[in-house]
Amino acid sequence: MLKMGKILLTIFVLLFLSVRSKSQINEFMPNQSEIKEMNEAIQADSNLAKVISWYGDPVMQYSNYKRNLFHADSIWHNAQKMLPAMDIGTTNKLEIIPLIDWFTANDSLIGESGSSYLIKTDDATILFDLGLNDKQIHPSPLLQNMSYLGIEIDDIDILVLSHNHNDHVGGTKWYQNNTFSFTNYQMELNGISVFTPDKMTYPGLTVNYTPNPTQLAKGVATIGVIHQPVFMTDIKEQALAINVKNKGIVVLVGCGHQTMKKIVERTKILFEEPLYGVLGGFHYPIEEKRNIKWIHKYFVVGKLPWERLTIDDVYANIKLLKSNGVSVVGLSGHDSCDKSIEAFRNEFKESYYDITVGQKIVIK
Fold it and tell me: Quick check: 148 and 108 in contact, CB under 8 A?
């Protein structure tokens, strides 16, 4: 009887788990209207059909997206309630030197579809991201630009990665292996502290995984990981916040997958000081020109692959920044098109900074 009781209990547990699993699957399954809209979009757009086909069954992708979105929203709302205000001190100076981006100050510098910025404060020199190095050459575009500008790896105290995408960690092969590199091989890095938004490794180095807001130096902190699902995956991205004395918080962003709205809301929660500036990549690919290709349009933040970012969306984000008193703005050309950049430039006028490799941005 005891043995039979255990068997029945096991069967009951398995049935319960099976029903629960099916219930969870059904909970996030797209409805017929959503499936119809998706299928019509796929049939009308061969490029979209190609992208979707890379990842398997579209309906299951949609279901996974809805599940990821639910989890990301839950994490976001819980984190916002629990995050304490941070007192990170201030820096008198802030210098930002773009080392990798699309536009360059002259023809001796190399532009590419990635980003890397050197940040100098009173107490620290921080490298934010490592660019793309698409052809995996040595020395990489990053190292070549650093050499031209007289910057050595030994000058760097801290390396921060915004998110684990190939155009920010030094190339596809590094991204695929949850690691990063300055060039086409992994150089020995001595004395550099590394902070990443996901669990990553590097030979001979301790890599600090920082899901929560973390102070890095006097006046400098990460704002913590913010999850943002796109149709195919869940992106975990962090940004840097620098507290400039008598100005406020300047946020430096890698790609803006978090969305501008969440970046602003997170910053307001973390700091008593006002949000003074927002610079970096924000993924506004409205038009297909120069390095902005058709593929960018299917990975727009906060939208499904068959939805499109519009100029109205861009102006909504401009309005958001203005309503929060933001004074200084700069958009990266590595992931935003000229039309989006021009919209921000026209709205912020003399407060707009072009993000150009080799062209220093100074805030005192």
Answer: yes
Pairing, β 207-209 against β 215-217:
unpaired
Q: What is the arithmetic mean of pLDDT over 91-120?
A: 98
Could you write out the three-class secondary structure of the chain?
CHHHHHHHHHHHHHHHHHHHHHHHHHHCCCCHHHHHHHHHHHHHCHHHHHHHHCCCCHHHHHHHHHHHHHHHHHHHHHHHHHCCCCCCCCECCEEEEEEECCCECCCCCCCCCCCEEEEECCCCEEEECCCCCCCCCCCCHHHHHHHHCCCCHHHCCEEECCCCCHHHHCCHHHHHCCCCCCCCCCCCCCCCEEEECCCCCECCECEEECCCCCEEECCEEECCCEEEECCCCEEEECCEEEEECCCEEEEEECCCCCCHHHHHHHHHHHCCCCEEEEEECCCCCCCCCCCCCHHHHHHCCCCCCCCCCCHHHHHHHHHHHHHCCCCEEEECCCCCCHHHHHHHHHHHHHHECCCCECCCEEEC
Task: Give pLDDT, residue 13.
Answer: 38
Within 10 A of 340 (CB to CB), how many other CB atoms are there?
Answer: 26
- pLDDT for the residue 364: 80
Least confident of 78-87, 258-267, 294-303: 294-303
Decide if pLDDT at 48 tops 60: yes
Given a cut of 60, whether residue 347 has pLDDT beyond it is: yes
pLDDT at 37 over 60: yes
Average pLDDT over residues 261-272: 98
- Residue 348 and residue 346: Cα distance in Å, rounded? 6
Distances (CA, A) of 304 to 69, 229, 320: 11, 10, 22
What share of the chain has pLDDT > 90, as a percent?
86
- Which is it for the CA torsion 77, 85, 229, 201, positive or negative? negative
pLDDT the model gives residue 113: 96
